[in-house]
Amino acid sequence: MHTASLRVAAIAPFLLAAACSAGPGGGEDLGQSSAPISTSTIVSRGMEWVNADLHYCQAARGEVDYDSSCWAWEGPSHRCDRESNAAWNAYRSDCSGFVTYAWGLPAVGDGGYVTGDFAPFSNSFSHTIDGIDLQPGDALNKTSNEHIILFKEWTNKGHTAVFMEEPGCSSSIPYAHEFTSDVSISGTEVYVSYEGATFYAIRFDQATSGGSTGGGSSSGGGSSSGGGGAAPDACSKGQGFCTATLQCDNGHWIVRQDDPNACTTVEDVEEPCSVGGGYCTATLQCDGGHWVPRVDDPAACTSGPGA
Question: What pLDDT, in 10s, does the model give residues 12-25?
């Protein structure tokens, strides 16, 4: 956990990247060995670290951390003594260890893959995409030995988005956190104003749209019977929302309430739609804190928005 005494001299976020993946880490060819994982689960796993303010260090918990910028909080032992959780103790809590964990990848090497193991520098388990196509759970990778961040959601598609990262011990926020930033896009390259740097937009090969399919904890919603992207509004049990139907309205998926007196309105699910495009009415269910479309008849429907 962090305290004010742990916050060492602040440096602009884009100057911290070089510390992210200096360790050996990674190096294994994952191929297709990892199980599919839903985009909502990826985001939920990332938020586990954000909600815990999980402190940055370039080592698994209890292991020696060779990043000297972290020694101010680690003490003379130079061991990563962050919050303990059996689910993530084996992972480095640096930028690439964070994405390794969020994507449900194994804690290979010294605690996870490093930035050079991710696209565009390696295509063993991820690939580049156009920046405008970024979806929750995708990532942005800078250079082969610098920084990688997780994409959470658009607030203004193509212009402003929410990201998650482990920023480095020299940061004024030396622990997992989310931030909102303006972006500018040119093909696969995305300039993130908050970072002051250009990244490549990338996607995990095993990521699936819609509800939980494995790779980590997820709450609510039941099992998925189809695809679809999460609605931008968060949800939770007992929050006053109810299951509703989605219909295509002017190019967007709009929730049509079954009982307006009993439901809270949720509008503008992120993925575009078109009348006659093969989609069908679906229901929304709460999965891992997000609204996820569940198709009523998978055999008769396209897999969901964005398919």
Answer: 333 343 346 544 44
Which residues does 156 contact at the CB level (< 8 Å), separation at least 6?
Answer: none
Region of 6 (left: φ > 0; alpha: ψ -120 to 50; beta: rest) is alpha
In the DSSP assignment, the letter for residue 170 is: T
Kindly give, in sequence order, each residue whose CB lies less than 8 Å from that of residue 11, ignoring residues fewer than 6 positions away. 168, 170, 171, 172
* Cβ atoms of 186 and 180 closer than 8 Å: no
- Write the DSSP symbol of residue 48: H
The helix (run of H) or strand (run of E) holding residue 99 is: helix 95-102
Residue the block writes with tokens 């388990």? 125
Give the span between the Cα atoms of 32 and 39, in whole angstroms. Answer: 17
CA distances from 155 to 32, 42, 135, 268 (A): 32, 18, 12, 11
What's the CA gap between 222 and 246, in Å, rounded?
18
Q: Where are the beta strands (DSSP E) in 166-223?
A: 177-186, 189-192, 197-204, 207-208
Q: Does the pTM of the predicted model rise above 0.85?
A: no
SS3 (DSSP) at 140: strand
Query: Is there a contact between 69 and 166 (Cβ–Cβ < 8 Å)?
Result: no
Write out the DSSP string of 260-296: TTT------EEEE--TTSS---EEEEEETTEEEEEES
